[in-house]
Hints:
This protein has helices spanning 22-25, 30-42, 47-67, 78-90, 95-114, 149-161, 165-177, 181-184, 225-238, and strands at residues 202-204, 208-209, 218-219, 222-224, 247-250, 253-256.
Amino acid sequence: MAKEIKQNMIRPRAKKLPDVTDEMWLQVDEEHRNLTEEFLDAHSFRDKTRKQYTSSLRQFFWWVHNSLNGKKLYKITKRDFIRYQSFLKNRGMSSSGIALKKAGVSSLNNYIENVVAEDDDNYKTFRNFTRGLPAIPKTITYEKVKITYEDYQTMMKVLEEDENYLGMAWLATAFNVGARRAEIIQLKTEILDYPIPEGQQYVLSHKVFGKGSGEGKVLEYMINTEALKYLKLWHEKRGYDHEYLFTTTYGGQPKQMS
């Protein structure tokens, strides 16, 4: 049985909403399903964003199907959406989780307002019902604790004793480079062959995509010699070559971390 880590937890984590399966999705109003697909296809979302929006919109319309008897989108009111937010809150969902669900619906509404309303009489007077609502009360699940260099050294020692070279590479990169998780997994093995410029203690990474609209903001990170040391150790120990540095093995095949 996996051990639950509760250190630094201020409140219990919310239970994950059940996935809306394809069978469940087919029970949703056809117009709502079509609008969702049209909206997703009209934008060049990154895979992660598309997945989040797909999940958010399926969850919302499944709730509409069950709690509002499939009420048409153009008839949904601010009051209805507040009920939806209350439903999420009562399940223990954090404010950031509710905000993420709200963002998906709001983006769809903006698309309908700006595009669909031009040639669909039902949406001529449609307005984004997620605008102008009371602020979502802020909740905090974990207390943020800054990691000192001594803490970093202690963790690296434990990982080394466990011969967890992937963990060492990840921690050294996260601590020394400061990239987000979604950016770290984009780092390529070619970085290990970059020459360190004279008088510097780092190499500049290739371009990675950060947070932002479209594909995301284009970023380059300084990978210092400390991080490079453990990236090279992991590369040596993993026993196979791959385009990306951070990989795991599924079914005997190495793949980029998700």
